[in-house]
Amino acid sequence: MPGSSSQVSIEKKHEISGFTLEKTVKLMKLTFSRILLMHQYVDVTVDQWVVMHILCKHQQLSQQELGELTFKDAPTITRIIDLLVQKGLVIRSTDEKDRRRFMIKLTIEGIEKYRFIEPIVQEFRAEAYAGISVDELLMLQNTLNKIFVNLSKQN
Amino acid sequence: MPGSSSQVSIEKKHEISGFTLEKTVKLMKLTFSRILLMHQYVDVTVDQWVVMHILCKHQQLSQQELGELTFKDAPTITRIIDLLVQKGLVIRSTDEKDRRRFMIKLTIEGIEKYRFIEPIVQEFRAEAYAGISVDELLMLQNTLNKIFVNLSKQN
DNA sequence: TGCATATTATTAGTATACTAATTAATTAGA
DNA sequence: TCTAATTAATTAGTATACTAATAATATGCA
Predict the structure, then answer these.
(1) Domain locations in chain A?
(2) Over the stretch A48-73, which tens digit does the pLDDT of each residue have?
(3) CATH code 1.10.10.10 for A27-152
(4) Is the CB of A62 under 7 A from strand C?
(5) Mean model confidence pLDDT for chain B
């Protein structure tokens, strides 16, 4: 019975909650965080590193741009930048064209620290994705993007 | 050249960071949280609801068991339970067999509230997973589990 | 041109996540 | 039986996420 089959599929579909997604992300972040902690030279958190990663890629960005690219809200960006400034890893300077805006960039020390951490990240990813083919990871990416797009329509 | 092909695949694999995973989870949680906020009767956060969900499924659990099943750490469980007790949604009672342990269960009100929220969750999931087949979601689940298992070996 | 509206960053408050430490209770082993 | 080791929950501290509000600045429109 086609209707019965469809009903079963819908119920099966709804069993798959965000729980698996969330706990996997949590474990990834937790593991990566612990790996960072093992290096004495490393004094940045996972999220601080994410910000540094984006800055290294783009050279200089406003806090707003940073927030968009890292998918973090403004107050959180402000706080992360505050901490990175304290650690001497980024510089916050005013934008000549807009006095409300700050431009953020990595210091020399920030770039060096980023470069030190990068291979650690690669190592971590190799472990996380061990035994998973590129095709499978691309499919994962694809499905996640579908979910993201679905929910972006809501916001 | 076989070596060259292998090298390209490895590089491609390492571009896929946890970023897509994390931002999707964040958007899911954020969207769900906003949907909950739209209902006046609902005064629980996403994470509080997750705890209630597990309690409804298992009737009564220790805090430790709750933490394991929700993948949350002990201090966080303590705080969430504190808030749920304040809201009159769960009861915390001592375990007769072990005086260090508390047993947690939903109140009548807690069960009612859970029942009220459940269809909201289903609705949310339907939106998040729109246009995604059951097979694709199962593959998603499968890949996530592989990552989880990979990293569980580290901890 | 002037003012209403929008924007950028910050502050404050609440909730959650993680580490470290502590206390009281339980377990394991000599 | 006694004690060292382990366990369950809590407290404290730091970091991040989200909402709401605010002040200063920029933009849009009459």
Answers:
(1) 27-152
(2) 999 999 999 999 999 999 999 999 99
(3) yes
(4) yes
(5) 89
